[in-house]
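Spend some time on the protein that follows and explain the fold to me:
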Amino acid sequence: MNPNLISVTLDTPSDNERAHSLPRPGRRGSKGARSSASAAAGAGVPGRRVTPVSDKPTVEIWTDGACKGNPGIGGWGALLRSGEHRKELFGGEKATTNNRMELTAVVEALRALKGPSDVTLHVDSQYVMNGMKSWIAGWKRNGWQTAAKKPVKNADLWKALDAEVAEHDVHWVWVKGHAGDPGNERADQLANDGVDSVR
C-alpha cells in the first residue's frame, strides 16, 4: 500500500526551526535534556528520589475509516502529533469495508512512527477498541479463531496491528465520532480524502 502523505508543522517558532516529520526516538528537546540532567545530578544525593526519564517520544494519534457502501470504496485517515510536529496520512481501496478501513488507519499510523514511542491512540471505532481491549488475546490463544471456532474476520489486519502495537506503549482512548473532537474530525476528513483518492 502506498498511502498519500502530508507532513506539516503545527507551529513554527522561527524560520530556522522548521520541522516536517515526527522526531526520531532518543532525539529530545531542551526540556527533556534538562530533565535527564537533573535526574543524573540527583542520582548520588541521599534522600533524593530520582524519576527515570523515558527515552521514547510521546505521540498522539487520531484515526478514522470511511466507506461509501459497505462493502464499497473505502478510505482511511490518520493524524499524528508529537510536540510541534504533525503528520497526516490517508489512503483508500476500491473494494473494502468500513471495519477494514478503521483497522488500516491504525496500522498505517503506527507504521509511520520512526521507532518505539509512547502513543495515545484515539479511535471512534468500537470494533477496533473491543478487538484490542477484549478479543485479541482470545483469538491468539485459539489460533485466530473466535469462541465459536470460526475464522476471525480481517485476521490479516488484526495480526498486522498486533505486531505494530508490540513495538510501542499504546494507550487506547475511545472518542465519539462526529462529536466535535478536533483530532477525530480531521481524521474523518482525511479518511474521506482517501475515498476520493481511489474514485
